[in-house]
Amino acid sequence: MKRGANAVGAVLCGVMLSVALCACSGQAEREAAQKPARAGVPIDRNETAERLAKMRGQAIAGDQVALHQNVEALDRDLRRAIRLVDPARRIDRENARIAAKSVAGVRSAVWVDDENLLAIVDRNGQRSYGTIDAICNRLEPMGDTLGVVINLQSGAAQTGDELEILSRNCQLKPGERAVAQAHRQIDVLPPDVRAQHRANADAALSGPDRSGEREESERIIEASTPEL
Asked: What is the pTM (predicted TM-score) of this model?
């Protein structure tokens, strides 16, 4: 009887573990699929006209609460359209760091400066814009993510290309930055230097065999070097 109970318990544990793993996998997929807010997109004229009409009616009716909410929403849309960070909605750095570490695959996270958050991921494949989106989604409830640039590096990198850091502002396209936001070089080797090293290595491998010249040079050096 006891043996049967143990067997049932083992089966239940296995089922619960499978459900937990599926849940974690589903959560990671949902985070990757969900896109964060986007800035730099012109505001919709029709929506803005409707909002202004509502604000006019709210002002006449004396509905200060609704009017204030629409004023804040309009200000937020205008700032997002011109890529201007809202200083009143600055994200707390420590809370953001903890939130970034909670994203699946993120091993560690640290702030390089007030704008750049560097995260190390477990696998090369996790160094992706999908992971950046997942981190940005975690930060959105904390404030204006337009003021945050996520930098990803693989903790499993073995080559120079795999060590390359993937960077993007949470709300903008790759390579774009918010107003007055600097393009900081986080990589130890800039991409152009790494590309030149790769080109030189490829040229050396595909060039003619120069081993004969090297042997001749070594023979001349040996012959001209006096014995001690």
From this structure: 0.67
